[in-house]
Every structure is written in C-alpha cells, then in structure tokens.
Amino acid sequence: xxxxxxxxxxxxxxxxxxxxxPEYVAYHDTEWGRPVTEEDALxxxxxxxxxxxGLSWITILRKRENFRRAFAHFEIERVAEFxxxxxxxxxxxxxxxxxxxxxxxxxxxxxAARDLHESGETLRELIWSHAPTERAVPRTLAEVPATTPESxxxxxxxxxxxxxxxxxxxxxxxxQACGVVNDHLAGCAVxxxxxxxxxxxxxxx
Length: 205
Prior knowledge:
mainly alpha; two-stranded antiparallel ribbon
C-alpha cells in the first residue's frame, strides 16, 4: 500500500493511524472527517482535543464516555454553570484526565460559547467560517499539516472571545475531527464517502 495507508480488520485500506485499535477503527470510519454542526457536539470536540494535548488520542477515546458523564454530556449551558465545587469534583474523577488547567479551560470555554450565543454569534458559524475554500487531497501522512493558516486564524478568533487551550495545532485537530477539513488519505476506503458527506456539510454549515 502507499505510504500512510494500512489494511484494516476487513482488509480494506485505511489511514494507517486508524488500524491499531478497535476504537480507532470505529472513530475513523464513523466520525473523523464527517461534518459536525451541532453546538454542543462542536464544544465536545474542542474540549476533547484540548485534553488530548500531550497525550495519545486513544487515551481520550477510551475515556470519552467518562468525559461525557463528568461534563454534563457537554451541554454548553450546563457546563457554563459549573462552580469551584465542580472543579474539585472533576479533579477527583479518575475516569477523566485530571488536569486543573484543562478542566478550568473546558468550563471557561463553555462560558465563552454561551457568551457567543448571547452576542448573536454561534460556535458553528465561527468554526465553519474558517473552512478552507480549496484543499488538496493528501496522499501521504507527510502531506497532512499540523497547522494551517485557517487553524491559526480560528485560534486567534476563539482566543479573542475568551476560549482557552485552543492553539493552532489543537484547532487543526478539531477541524479534522469536525469535518471542517477531510484529511482521509487518497486511497483510504472511507475517503470518498466522507467527502460526499463533507460537501453536504459545507453546504449546510
């Protein structure tokens, strides 16, 4: 297979990062690169990508349900009301990543997202307004960037609105996760399907 592709459990080629664990295969095939436009779901991706910083993504995937339970299923309005008592509760929760800065950032980001709504903006509009207008199909892992001008601009826009742990690298990973870009490699078994859904998502975002 070409560089960056590997056979999945069914023998079909996939992005090589996605075949090392069942959780990766499921995430790659059913979520990654597919458009996310619902506000709470976008907030969830931002939070999880922030927690992933410095860790492997498989760690976050395996704790995802714990994160959902701990953070009120990522309902923006509910998390925005979290208090110092909630911070202490989360710091004692072994089911998630117990990092004070990231926990406090997740709560601050819920408040920032709520403030966006109150000012007449939406998280969806802000994120999707930074989708690239043109995008070459990556053929190898080396062609998939860690940051882009769009992720850098989105990082600045979110920080200006009070969001934390939203650097350009974290934001580009979130853009991939939310389908703002489709970085499935050429030859990946699900790329064409994702691209079709991706184009529909762009039209509806």
